[in-house]
Amino acid sequence: MLTVSDISTSYGESEVLFGVSMTVGAGEVVALLGANGAGKTTTLRSILGLTSAHKGSISFDGMDITRAPPHQISRAGISWVPDDRRIFPMLTVKRNLDIARKSTRFRAWNDAALFEIFSALEYLYDRECENMSGGEQQMVSIARALVGSPGLILLDEPSQGLAPSVQQDVLALIRKLKQEGIAILVVEQDALSALEISDRVYVLDMGRIVHEGPASELLASNDKRRLLLGI
Fold this sequence. Notes:
By secondary structure, the chain is an alpha/beta fold.
């Protein structure tokens, strides 16, 4: 579904990514892990066209999106759940979702389908988002990504700032999305939780991929985790 080939990305004169390559298949959850400042969010921004790669190529669903503007990439079927959620707090859940709806070649999500995945959403539908908990707001942010009819969802720190029990609820939602056949690339500071829900993992260090392989392998090896992630 997604192929990132040897991309390098800079902010002005400062190089951040150095020859990063990765793939994400349909119905696959892939974790992108690494320390703060390793380049994880920049990788997502490069895929989204928010910070264009100056070297290499990115393809999605068979299309070259390397130089495409962000709105075209979104319309192609890539949705983003940013680390700060970025929902409209003064608007209701319904209005937040209505703003984000669009059609792509991928599955369209109506309200009934959303309520099957997010059972609590139906009861929050007419509530202003500023009057919701952090976990509820994160649910709205993920639901908003879904109504964009994505083939791929990029999740940036989905459990950030949430209580441990709520974090587990969010991770359970990711498992449900995988069952729907959506490709997911997840950046997560809680590396153990990310490994538990992922099929494969890439580890970034100072803008370079230093490890790739099955998530189960890294989850099972304390030595590798300590070496690569410090945990």
